[in-house]
Fold this protein.
Amino acid sequence: MIHLSRLLVQERDRICFDARGDARDDDLPPGRAVMLVSGVTDALKTVRDGEVVDAVDRESVAHVVAFAVDRSLLETLGDDSLTAEELVEAVLRQGVDWVLVSQDEFFRPLRAQ
């Protein structure tokens, strides 16, 4: 869980944290809401009713490594605890698009699909 109240005690204009909500150095490119992702190398399968029904194309998914979000934007989200997915959705509801950056190719911007 990402505890917004814990992140907001940092006295920075932009707060950087990993997908569990632990603070980290802000070494990400500029942007109000930046998401650092890396490729998925594990085999992924879709399981339904305990049986494997399909393989997932690893090119269609990414592993979230870290976030960097402007303090003013985080403050609009309140002080609740959110999952990484809930955080992504909450930022989008504020009308802010995420900047996706690939860790695998030295901060190559990606397009969300």
Summary: Helices lie at 4-7, 71-76, 84-93. The mean pLDDT is 85. The longest strand covers residues 63-70.
